[in-house]
Structure formats: C-alpha cells, structure tokens
Hints:
Number of helices: 8
Oligomer: single chain
Radius of gyration: 25 Å
Number of strands: 7
Distance between the termini: 84 Å
Order of helices and strands: HEEEHHEHHHEHEEH
Structural class: alpha/beta
Shape: globular
Amino acid sequence: MPSVKINKKSTDTDMTPFVDIAFLILSFFIMATKFKPPEPVQITIPNSVSSQDLPENDAVMVTIDSTNRAFFTVLSAKDKSVFDQIIQNVNTSRNLGLTTAEMANFRKTPTVGVPFQELKSLLDLAPEDQAKVTMKGIPISDTNANELIWWIGAAKKAYVDAQRPLKWLIKGDGNSKYPAFEATIAALKKNDEYKYNLVTSLENAPTGTELEKAQRAGKPLPK
Length: 223
C-alpha cells in the first residue's frame, strides 16, 4: 500500500506586525510619560499621613537640604513662556546682565541653587555640565539679603502675567534647621504669599482613624 506524503508547512511566523505594534506601544509610553526634574540634592523628608497629591504642573518648589542650602525649582509648566518671564524678571530686578542665550538656557536648568553673582556662570553651562556643579545654595540666612525673595517675586509676577494659577511647595530635609525654613516662609510672606504645601513622605494613618479605615477599605481618602 503506497504511503501518503503530507505536505510540510513552514513554521516561520512573520513578526513584522508584532514589531510594528511594539514600536507603537513604546511610542505611546514615551509621549505619555511625564519626567520629573532631577533632584538637586538627596533629601530625606519627614513622614506624614496627608493624602493630597502633589501638583505636576504650575508649581514652584523650594528645597532645603540637610545643610540648610536652599534651591529653587520651577516644576513643569503648561505654559513654557513662564520660564522666560521668570528669568527676565530676575535679570531686570537684580541687574544681572544676562545674555539672551543665558536666559534661554534657563528652560533647561531644572534647579537653581547659587547666589545671583554666580547665576551668569551657571546659565552659561550646558545642562550636562550644570549637573557637575556643586551649588552652594541660594543665600537666605541674612534677612536683608534673602535672595529667595526675588526668585519668588519673579515667579509670582510671571504667573500673574500669564494668568495661570501657581502653587508653592516647600520640601525640607528632616535634619534641616528651623531658621532655614523660617527664612523660606519669610520670603513667601514678603511677596504676600501665605499658602503653601509641605512635601512629606506618606506613612500609614494612625489606627482607628477615618483615614486608616479608608486606607484599609481602598476607598478615596478623606481630604
């Protein structure tokens, strides 16, 4: 009895459509991902049970490290022109003589932590070279020479002119001293700003509280 030959079919699979899908998914995540500015210094923030999320846009954060150095950061703004307006306001109010190129570089400078006299040198560097600079912090210890006052004033004016809301954040290391925090609050008050958020690390709520019950039940946390 003659044997029946079965035609062999190729087991190769055309992967081209899968590669296209993979690139589409990758492109989506790249476009949708929001990158936070690099931290100027390592900060160990105190814990709290606050359930409020930090704003992702239109916010200014003052960071105080364990050695009481102060840093000024403009978080990602929806209206990028506020970056230009802030540095222009500082340049004019303090007569710093910044060039157009140096002011344009402020958009690529996530954090400022130098006195005004060193700002020109900082903005003259490329972003990758700025990361190598050890910043001594914005002077805040002397009430009469608290340079943070000018940065806050410049940011406030820029957002008012842009007709956009602005939130203030203070992120302090758990080992920072109270005078540095007090100087930061004083700079805000000098600009008639009395509302701000403290950045803390979320911890579990005390047992038996409404917040703890909401956490266990997976319900929206009470404000």
